[in-house]
Amino acid sequence: MIQVSNEANLPTKYGDFKIQSFRETKKCNENSCYVDHLVIKSKNLSDNPLVRVHSECLTGDVLGSLKCDCGGELEMALKMIIDDGMVIYLRQEGRGIGLFNKINAYALQDEGLDTVEANLKLGFKEDERDYSVVEEIFKFYKLKKIRLLTNNPSKISVFSNMIEVTREPIIVQCNKHNSHYLEIKKEKMGHLL
């Protein structure tokens, strides 16, 4: 079940946006729990808006971590969607393994494992994310086609089953801290970098 909040204004350093939250009811162990996702969008949407589906990355998005490209991609996307687009911000930290496990994966990376090896060593798949709520968001905004800001072929495949998708690349600058990470995303996960 999905609940949708009211829409509100969000003035930012990138420009003025509209925001809306989508509350997803999920099964957590034996109980139900809520996961709140966020849509940040331009005031007007065309029939083919620019869309970034961005999974939460506290270390990159908030703390400015240089170990990944997440914060840079989010910042770039917010600058690009100001006139016609949206960022769908999904609360699935660490490719869906959660913040606690992500930090444990970081510790394994400090010992020499790459991002995929670290997730596998912790007993997870290389990517545990679930994008089913995105289809509900597309339906809510009556979207039929989008220009998807991504380098991830898995996202292109998943969203192409929901909506007409044209890919737009989103390339952020490499640095000495994330060069190996980006190489692994390209070699092991097939990212279009």
From TrEMBL:
EC category name: hydrolase
Positions that bind Zn(2+): C57, C68, C70
GO molecular function, one term: GTP cyclohydrolase II activity
Domain (GTP cyclohydrolase II) ranges: 7-164
Pathway assigned to this chain's UniProt record: Cofactor biosynthesis; riboflavin biosynthesis; 5-amino-6-(D-ribitylamino)uracil from GTP: step 1/4
Residues involved in GTP binding: R52, V53, H54, S55, E56, E93, G94, R95, T115, T150, K155
Matches recorded under Pfam families: GTP_cyclohydro2
Catalytic activity: GTP + 4 H2O = 2,5-diamino-6-hydroxy-4-(5-phosphoribosylamino)-pyrimidine + formate + 2 phosphate + 3 H(+)
Keywords recorded for this protein, A-Z: GTP-binding, Hydrolase, Metal-binding, Nucleotide-binding, Riboflavin biosynthesis, Zinc
Origin superkingdom: Bacteria
Assigned EC number: 3.5.4.25
Keyword GTP-binding: yes
Catalytic-site annotation from UniProt: D127, R129
Bound cofactor: record note: Binds 1 zinc ion per subunit.
InterPro entries: GTP_cyclohydro_II, RibA, RibA-like_sf
Cofactor(s) needed: Zn(2+)
Family membership: Belongs to the GTP cyclohydrolase II family.
Function noted in UniProt: Catalyzes the conversion of GTP to 2,5-diamino-6-ribosylamino-4(3H)-pyrimidinone 5'-phosphate (DARP), formate and pyrophosphate.
Name of the protein this chain belongs to: GTP cyclohydrolase-2
Organism: Helicobacter ibis
Biological classification of the source: Bacteria, Pseudomonadati, Campylobacterota, Epsilonproteobacteria, Campylobacterales
